[in-house]
From TrEMBL:
Coiled coil: none annotated. This is TTI2 protein. It holds the Pfam family Tti2. One of its GO terms (cellular component) is cytosol. InterPro entries: ARM-type_fold (IPR016024), Tti2 (IPR018870). Belongs to the TTI2 family. It comes from Upupa epops. The lineage of its organism: Eukaryota, Metazoa, Chordata, Craniata, Vertebrata.
Amino acid sequence: PSAQQVLKQVRLLLAEGPGVVRELGALIEAAECRWLLADVSPAVLGELAAALDGYAAPPRQEQETADLPGKDSAYAATAERAADVGSVFLHLLAKLEAAKIQEALGVPVVGPILSQVMGPIYVFAATHIVERPWTNARTQSVAHEVLATLVRAAGCESVAEFLRGRNDDEEGRFAAVLGLLKQELTKDSWKCNPATKFVFSWTLTQVTRPWLSRYLERVVPPSLLMSDDYREENKILGVRCLHHIVLNVPAADLCQFNRAQVVYHALYNHLYSREAPLIQVGFTVSPNQAVLLCLLDLLPILERAQRQQAQPRPTAPWDEVLQLVLTHMEAEHRLALRRVYARSLPAFVQRLGIQIARHLKRLERVTVSYLEVCDGPEEEARLGILETLECTIEHAWPRMPCRVPVLVWALLKMIWDVHTDQGSTPEPVKAALLQRATKCLILLDRCSEGRVKDLLEGVHSSCEENCVRECIREVREHT
């Protein structure tokens, strides 16, 4: 029989079990390139690759399933199937590479076949390339090998080049991959295949500027869909995707059709979340996937758009976000969230500059409150607040003299608490706290024309602790 007849029959028999897949791999490995590829329609091989990818996919689940199951027998069976399918793909790609060299077949035949099978093979590799409940060490290794072979067969040097194209004139395979994922990324179906969202997010992060902007209409809706989900894991994944889009799409394209405002409102709603991982980090890749830091990258784009539209400054999103953050900070008692908020504040102060004066009353209350509480060995919240206070004094110094008594009292109390702390705080952390507190006192003294020195006179004469006296002495002697 012809190869086309055999491959069509095999596609219909895939559901019968792993034996068919293994025999298919042995057949492709032993077949001659001429018999396997010359008389086969590229569409037939594309359908076979898609069927193999579906055969190796994790089991579908109901949309409202709360959590992915653990590594149960169903996922163990998925890993076994994926290893067999990966072997078939490796044999097929090896034949395609060998066919390129043979003049009898040539690239005109191999090219159309590659264009048909690349999408399903890539989706298979992206599904199994990282650790998931349905993968194991063997399937991850096979997926890495399949992806490397696919990229090489396409004549590319990296996955990013494979997706975006080798030059500006050549369209990559990103559009084809999105086309395969499109039916799985609708509102009603995106939760049915547990791998689809990971394949989409992993693929999206491989495509950067300037190539990503041409696919903007196709990547924003799925990202917003995941971001708006009720499960924290999906929210974090959506925020990661949105942040990548913000960083890699020109501002003009983001503002077109009001896309930037849509993304802003989606992120702003996450500020009401009480979960630190969502506010702070998208998985363990980088803190840049944080909701707050994502907003920090998006807000300048919105501000420029408002200036171009001649909108009044009081409606700026910067003030809206900072006001909400300070409101949450003032009432927050969980240390994890206090650390997240405190680390993000300096960036807001730096960006607002003198306009931080609009928020000084609430910021003062937050500063005093956070300086009072020890938040563990690393003291991240206190260090973040001290950095925020330092930036605030530098930018809004004309408005600081009236706040000197309250802030000096809070700083001295913190210095005393740090000095007398007998807990697990390392000495370098204590030294950093004392150094930053001292610098804040010096800055307050500068902007109040020596008023801090006057307030510290009595304290220096009555204090007997050398550490505290040293901090006060440094402030008094600074000119």
